[in-house]
Each structure stands twice: as structure tokens, then as C-alpha cells.
Amino acid sequence: MLNNRLRYVKGSPAAAAWGILRDLKVQNFPIDPRQIATQLGIVIWERELPDTCDGCLMRVGNAWGILINARIRSESRRNFTIAHEIGHYLLERDSVGSCSLDERLNAVMAEQDENTEQGKPNKQAYLQSEQRANQFAAELLMPTPIFSADSSSHAQVGLPAIAALASQYGTSLTSTGIHYTRLSKFVCAIVFSEEGVIRYFAYSDAFRENKDCYLVSGQPLHPKAFASQFNNRVSAGELMGEVPLNYWCKPKESRMNEGKSESANSKIFEHSRRIPSTKQVITFLHLPC
Description:
Strand order of the largest sheet: 5-4-8-7-6
Number of helices: 10
CATH topology of the largest domain: Beta-Lactamase
CATH architecture of the largest domain: 2-Layer Sandwich
Distance between the termini: 35 Å
């Protein structure tokens, strides 16, 4: 039973997600966010939207709806988007005013664009709102107490476990990989690169605490890293093996003057593969103990 396994900070996105699962007596996985939206009285419909917008929460009078970008083909991405918007509804609905569809879309696009007069002052609030909705979505679809237990049951660490969990929970490799890595007890990170550049990443607490493990968003991939081989179209499958730690990590600047970093001689295990139907490469990095 979910309610016997939950430990959370009151008022957090996780508390809201676990609370709605408990209140609606959701027991089966994968969790269907459409069904949850229906039980909350939220209508879901689709329309082609700009590529930068996966979806948005709508209020018209006292009626609520979630608009999904019809261009999204991945069912797991659609599910995460719906869960994300449910998060906005449960966490922020008191601040969402009634408006027309065009007005709502214009507001969303303005919030995303920091160069507009509306976007500049609201950028930080927008990012915080999106982060909380993402946390809610991850916990709604992959509740930490249950997900952690399932993660620990996999003998293999990294992408094999992430792929199996994604199938089990009906979630994407991206969202599953981020959740898995942040909860891991190992010194590990997950990196998403595109066209030879690190776009974003997530890491475990142990990785963050390691003085030689420091990733930089926007940094070009090392030409000899396995992930680079996908950009060079050398490989279409997956590549794995030990590589020098400094192919990926730079020592924290605060430590660099304390002597030569061990990263030049250390090794890290890299497992890279292309994410289907995208230009991105997913890489799991694991530093052996």
C-alpha cells in the first residue's frame, strides 16, 4: 500500500503527488495520468503547438483542461506532459486565471522568452514553477519509495536498469534515467548530449560530493569519448567501457589549486547510446568505488 511507505516534506511536489495517488487509491503500474486527470475533472485535448511547448494548463471559467502538443509522438512523453500539467493544477491552480486559448498560449510563450518584457521579471518564477511541476510528474509516475525498491532489485547498474524501469513504469528513458540517477547510492551521472555538446545532466549525491566529478553544461564532448562516436556517425548502436575520467569531468575549481587532480589518471565507466527518434545521446557515467 502506498500510504504505508511514504515519507515526505509537507507541501512539497512529492507530497502532492503521493497524496493524490493515495486519495484516488491508485495501485497499479504503469500509472495512467489521463485517468487521474479525468478523476480530477480535467479535460484533455490536443492541438499542434510550437515545438518549444509540450502542453499547458487551461482554465476557462470554472472548467479546467490540459492542452497537449499533437506533434508529440512518444506516448511516454505525452504521459509525462499530462502529469506535469496535473502538477501545475494541484500546486498552483489558485494563481491561474480564466482566459482564452490564444491568451494562455501567448502567456506561456512569453514566460519562456526572457527577452520579452513579460519574460524578464518572470523568468526565475517560471523556472521554479516548471521545476516543481517536473518533480511532481516524476513522483506521480515513479513514486520514490516504490521506484527505489525496484531500482535496487536490478543487478546491473545504469542503462540496462533504466531501460527496464522505463518499460515497467511507462516512462521515457530521459525521465527514468534522471530519477534513477538522482536516487542512486553510487557515484554516477547521466548526461544528455546533442550534436557533440552536453545539453543537460543529473547526478547522484555521491557524484556531487566527489572532488574530481564536475560536469559542465554546454561543454563540447571529448572527441575520444564514446558519445562522440554517435555524433560522428561511427556507431548506430551502443558503446561502453572504461575511459579516462577527464574525458568527462573537470575537477571543481575550488580544488584545482590544492595540487594535481587525480582525474587525469582515474577511469570512469561510460555507457552511451542514441535515444530512439531523437538526435540526443544518453550517457551513463559510473565511477567504481
